[in-house]
Amino acid sequence: MPATILLVDDDPDLRQLLAIRLRSAGYTPLLAASGAEALGALAANRPAAVITDLRMDGMDGLSLFEHIRAKDPALPVIILTAHGTIPDAVDATQRGVFGFLTKPFEARELLDLLARAAALQPSQTAKPSPKDEAWRADILTASPRMLALLSEAGLVARSEASVLIRGESGTGKEMLARAIHRASPRQDGPFVAINCAAIPETLLESELFGHAKGAFTGASQAQTGLFQQAHGGTLFLDEIGDMPLPLQVKLLRVLQERQVRPLGATQAIDVDVRIVSATHRDLDAAIVQGQFRDDLYYRLNVVSLHLPPLRERREDIAMLARHALQMLAPRLHRRITGFTPDALDLLQQQDWPGNVRQLMNVVEQCCALSTTSRIPASSVTRALRLKPATLLPLAEARDQFERDYLAQLLKMSQGNVAQAARLAQRNRTEFYRLLGKHHLDPSQFKAAAQDMPTQE
């Protein structure tokens, strides 16, 4: 698939000339006449690189670059200018611009820059190829934000840098950590994960560092800690923000010395481990509150990746729901072909505070209780515990209240119309008319009252 290049220039002639050069070199140009137009294009597509003029009306090239870097730091930006000076180039490269070319420039010079930029980017397809993108094959997405994040993850995976993954609960932080491990030189080593919030403080130290035989009451044999188990691979510390302060000190020492000393042991053991950690907490606030050590934070947060919540990548909801249904239906022995259009619309309208994990749970409930080949919106409404509508038209709301009110009176009077009419302060003729309007049969309420168990 040809790499897409976003070309931004307010000169239409130069824009078309560059587009012709890009097409002849095998790229797919995406054209924008201004910085604002470019940001709109980036909201819908993630190119392999951006080429932008420096001097443009409104938003100039450097301002556009700052907007891009704030949302997608791994997207290469090449700036072109006819007014280039050495200070301009120095300033641009210091800010992180991938390349800076002064007009007139050689076409080969630009194409060489583009080749280097495109080589850094992952495939732009939602379904990665088994050969090149197997490391992230479990992460399904069509979201430009997620594709940008995966581009960053692929770059950092090649290094030994510690990675801190931020994101709300249920966004898939462990899945991203596993993808980073698979893309790293350590892919043949072990991937070991631990949830720091799920293990009591008294046991967490032993789990991480191990213990010698007899180190404490009940330690009948030596235990290898997770650091040793992850030797040569990756150790994933989930919910690192919930680690107790005393253990934070010991973890920092292990990271600094690259050695662990099991509880009760007299000698330290060398460990070669790459740390990937994750948290849903605001660690900057935790540092201010004295709940997290800043020196440990800087050790863990060499590279920070932020997983967006599902409500900020709604284009992925339908894809994830269908994928979950394909996995779950055979397991639950259901023959379900998909969702109805209104059911998918309803899924995409939700904010999903529990993110992908909540979506999977809702799909599983719908699948388990489905009696049809396609899951309708009513099943989604029930699984989400939603009211059928958040705001009813006035006439419909009045009718619903009136029907519920009359039904409540009939329940209280056990179907006795005279008594229910007195409670409503209406005559029997008018009360019967209201019952007929709402198709309420008093005899059904009498039968229901008779079927109720009596208390001894």
From TrEMBL:
Keyword hit for Ligase: no
Molecular-function GO terms, alphabetical: ATP binding; DNA binding
Pfam families with a match to the protein in the record: AAA_lid_14, Response_reg, Sigma54_activat
SMART domains: AAA, REC
Record-level GO BP terms: phosphorelay signal transduction system; regulation of DNA-templated transcription
Residues where 4-aspartylphosphate is found: D53
Keyword vocabulary terms for this entry: ATP-binding, DNA-binding, Nucleotide-binding, Phosphoprotein, Transcription, Transcription regulation, Two-component regulatory system
Name assigned to this protein: DNA-binding transcriptional response regulator, NtrC family, contains REC, AAA-type ATPase, and a Fis-type DNA-binding domains
Species of provenance: Thiomonas bhubaneswarensis
